[in-house]
Structure formats: C-alpha cells, structure tokens
Amino acid sequence: MSALSRDEVAHVAMLARIQLTDGELDRLAGQLDQIVGFVATVGEIAAADIPPMSHPLPLENVTRDDVVRPSLTPAEALAAAPKVQAERFAVPRILDED
After folding, report:
1. What is the pLDDT of residue 1?
2. Which of 9, 14, 31, 96 has the lowest tally of Cβ within 10 angstroms?
3. Would you say 58 and 65 are in contact if contact means Cβ atoms under 8 Å apart?
4. Which residues of 43-76 are buried (b: 16+ CB within 10 A; e: fewer)?
5. Cβ 49 vs Cβ 40: under 8 Å
C-alpha cells in the first residue's frame, strides 16, 4: 500500500490540469510514492559539508561584455520602414486594448 492515496494523486493531477483515468491514478499513486522515497533517500545521503548546487558541472557566464559601438541613427533605422510614427516603426494594432 502506498503512502500517497489515490485521492491525493487525483488532487495533484487536478492542480496540474491533467486528466487521468482510474487505472492511471492507481498506477501513479505507487510510482509517486517511490519517487518520494527516492528523494527522501537522497536527502539522507546528502552530507552537511557539501554545499548545495544548482548544476553538477561548474558553469561560467558565456555572455560577452557590453561594448558601446557605432550604430544606426533613428532616421537611418527607419529609412526603409513602410510606416513611421513618432520616430518608431508603426505596425497594425492586434489588440483592442488602449
């Protein structure tokens, strides 16, 4: 017998907006109970001297530094635009909101 009831699994499925059949609810109750057990085992194994991490491999920021470079003036950027309004590209309205 799993520690998670069929009703608890149905409640979680409803919160996740997932429709499950009766058979799926019964099967998932046991599977989710195993997953909760596995997570508890990992919690027991984790040592206090190991800091929490977000990724198992060291990551470095791979973005480039911001460097000011010459670019187009607003007039140059808008020169080929089919329609301009208040120094901006004018596009058709897609929403009725103001």
Report:
1. 46
2. 96
3. no
4. eeeeeeeeeeeeeeeeeeeeeeeeeeeeeeeeee
5. no
User: Given its phi and psi angles, is residue 57 left (phi above 0), alpha (psi -120 to 50 degrees) or beta?
Assistant: beta
Q: What's the CATH code, domain 6-45?
A: 1.10.20.60
Give me 13's structure tokens.
């499925």
Alpha-helical runs (H) found in the chain: 6-15, 22-45, 74-78
Query: What ranges do the domains of the chain cover?
Result: 6-45
For the record, the structure tokens of 16 come out as 């996740």
In terms of Cβ atoms closer than 10 Å to its own Cβ (0-12, 13-18, 19+), residue 79 is exposed
pLDDT per residue as tens digits for the range 12-62: 999 999 999 999 998 988 898 889 888 888 878 767 777 777 888 888 888
Amino acid at position 85, single letter: Q
